[in-house]
Structures are given as C-alpha cells and as structure tokens.
Amino acid sequence: MAQTFDLILRGGTAVTPAGTQRTDIGCRAGRIAALGDLGTASAAEAIDAHGLTILPGVIDTQVHFREPGLEHKEDLATGTAAAALGGVTAVFEMPNTKPSTTTAEALADKVTRAKGRAWVDHAFFLGAAADNIEHLAEWERLPGCAGVKVFMGSSTGSLLVADDATLARVLGQGFRRVAVHCEDEERLAQRKSLIEGGAHPRRHPEWRDVETALRATQRLIRLAEAARRRVHVLHVTTAEEIAFLAEHKDLATVEVTPQHLTLAAPECYDDLGTYAQMNPPIRDARHRQALWQGVADGVVDVIGSDHAPHTREEKGKPYPQSPSGMTGVQTLVPLMLDHVSSGLLSLERFADLTSAGPARIYGIAGKGRIAVGYDADFTVVDMRAERVITHSWIASRCGWTPFDGRRVVGWPVATLVRGRTVMRDGQLLGAAAGKPVRFQENR
Questions:
Q1: pTM surpassing 0.70?
Q2: Are strands 427-428 and 231-233 parallel, antiparallel or unpaired?
C-alpha cells in the first residue's frame, strides 16, 4: 500500500545530517516523516523541487522587531513577513522595546501579540536589568522565552549591565546560555568626545574601537568562568576577539553578522553614510578577514542578522544624532548564499551556522536539521538564480536595505514552516500562523 503524506517535496537536493543528497521528503502533521525515494507515495500537496536546494529552515537568532512601543519602525507582522520572504523560518527577538522585555508580563505580552500575526516561528529574549536578576532563573523557563540578553554597552532604558558586580549576579542566576552585547560602557563614555558636536560616520569605529569590544569580551569570559555559566557573544567584529574566543570555546559560543562579513570600513561609510552605522561597528578589511577565518576554523557558531530597523528620517539625521542599526533579516539568506557561490563557505557550513548551530546553542527542540521527527521547516533556494537586492523588495516597515543594488547569486524561492508553505516565489501565502519555538527541558 502506497504511503500517504500531507506534503512531499520531490527531487530536491537536501542538506541532511547524512550529507547533501538528492531525495524526496515526506511530511505529516508538520514534521518530517520520511526521506528517500518515495516513489508512488501520495500527498495532499506536492512541491517539485528538482533543480532546487532544500536547506533546514534558517533560524535568525538576533532580530529587533520594535513592538511594542516603536511600531513606526517595525512590528511583529512586518518583521516576520520580511523573515519569511527572505527564507527565514524562525526568529529570536530582542528585548529593547518600549517597555523593555524585563518582566514575565512583558514576555507574555509579546507572545500574545505574535499570535495570528507572526509569519514564522518565534521566541523572545528577556532583558537582564539590575531590578529583575532574582527572577531570571524562573522566567527563562516560560513559554516563548529564548533566554536572557545582556547589554554591556549603551542601549535602551534600564537595559544596561555595565559593571562586573551586576553582571556576575546575572550570570549566577539560571542555567541557559546568556546572549551578550559586548562593548565596554566605561570606555565608550571616555571616548565619546571623539564624535560629540558632529563627525563623519567613518569615526564610528574609532569611537567604538577594538579595545572597547575586546575589553568587554574579556571581562565577560572572566566572569563566566567564575560562574561556570555558558555565554553567547553576539555580533563579534574584531580579529582580537576571534583569537581570544578561540581559547574559550568550552564556555563561549560566537555569532557574526552578514553585514560584518560583507561590508568594510572606510568604504561603507563613504558609500552609505549613517546607513552603515551599527553597534558594534563595521570595521576595516583586516577584521572582516579575521571573521571569515573564524568561520573557516569553526570558532564562529552562528550567523544572526541583528536586524535593527530605523526610519529613513531617523537614519538621515547627522552623525552621531543618527541611530545605530540596519535591516537584515530579509537579506541574510541571499547575502550568505552569494558568499557560498563565491566559494567563501560551503552549503553545509551555511546550514550549520543558521540551523544546527542555533539549535545547539539555545537547546531548540525539533528544529535545526532535515531528519525524521523534526519540524518540517525548510528554506528552499535556487543556487543558480541571479537577483539584485533592492529597497522595493524589503518588507520591513522602514523600507530600505544597505545592500540596495547588490547583485547576488543564490536566492530563496520558498519558505516552509512546520509543513506549511508561507512564501513561494516572492509571495506570502495563507495566513500568519507562526508559533512559539519549543526548547529542550534540560537546557
């Protein structure tokens, strides 16, 4: 008797734990049920994937979707639409909204807001602050919680953990890996005179210099060792940090962004002005090369977009009045596929950095690989497609990308979340039905 499935993807080249291979994929009840030649098997829906590459669903573990309080820049509906259009099947959203996500109530509010509006699966970080430390161990177990986020450098409202004593208290509470923005607040304050009164945006990496990043990262690791707590260092930007973190992989995992792997100073600031401004900054080609070496050597564990939209009006202000941050969730996959096409990394390494890597780091349940029993999350791409990234393609409410006009080879053509096709050939399909990401119990 022929097998029956809800969905079959036929004839695609899939990146699986057993290698990259031509295979059919059969799915039932939102999960992968069979791999191999499915022959005469039938399904309610079939996708002809011949000539296409099927990646495990891409998970972007660092996005800022601005809701609540800053919806003029972005909200959960527009941000997750951008994710789906870019081939991303799940996102972890950051806590620097208004109000900040520093309470159980604020976390639950975001989970509620996402229901029926989020196009992809999602989880939300709790922000560590001086007044909520004693609750973190309890709250990090709540449904929809991605973990705890720490800002060591200037951010929003109360979300600043600048001193070692407070950071040590945070690291002493709970058990999940803590995600950390590493910039030394004291050094930032000391060096702010470099840009006060106005400057060219190319001064941004001079103000927020290598030492600012390295000093914070070294402080974090020293305290993490004392607390025996695993940490995840977000958006690493310097050669010095890569070398240092390579010696501390027992406790620390490492994220880099497509922006820091693609752009370089000073050219990006001359070309883009404040639209190239983000924290930590885009640095010169020496550091970009070191990040790529970190990818090649396995020091880097994950790629996250750090999608942080601002309106054109806000970004158009003279530096340093202009805010830091740029869009990225929709361009992560095309940019990195272009780097695959150019030979800078393999498809298998890309899948590890965006699917298996996030699952390992955060203890995600049921996602991260194309394997029987796992969620039927797929990023389907055409590795031969040549496209130009444009402002008009961007679904984010702010409507711009620093990569406008960039030609890439490799493009997402379908996004499937738990067996549902939510994007096909550049169009969103059906209704927004993303759900909270599940996590392993012993994480």
A1: yes
A2: unpaired
